Amino acid sequence: MIKKEVTLCGKQVTLAYCFATEIGYKILAEEECIDFIKEVFASIESNRMPDTKKSIMLIIAAATAYAEFKGEDVPIDNKDIMYNASSVEIGNAIGVLVSMYVEFYKMPAGEEDKKPDEQEAAEDPKNA
User: Fold this and answer.
1) Which residues of 51-78 are buried (b: 16+ CB within 10 A; e: fewer)?
2) Backbone angles phi, psi at 105, to 5 degrees
3) What is the pLDDT of residues 46-78, one digit of tens each?
4) Which burial class, exposed, middle or buried, applies to 79 when counting CB atoms under 10 A from its CB (0-12, 13-18, 19+)?
């Protein structure tokens, strides 16, 4: 588990990236976390914000993963974020989560698009 604190709605919130985050996101958004991470990279390239609803779902999944791990109540909910968080806070939280994703999968810079199984296939000498 990788954890980092961010400010959301004027509160310090600890976000965690682990398999519980990915499962929570999949339950909320009905898509794999990697699909949204790819969308975030594409949105950066086109100089726009990623999907707001998916962004909030990933933040909630990460905050919930940490709170459940610690046996605590989640300090924020989707309504808090929708009505009280600034776009800067949401953007910062998503940036932190993307960096946590990269760290979690220990991806070198420039290889964010490859999934772990694709990385192994590319390194297999029989595929050369």
Assistant:
1) eeebbbbbbbbbbbbbbeeeeeeeebee
2) -95, 5
3) 988 899 999 999 999 999 999 999 999 999 999
4) exposed
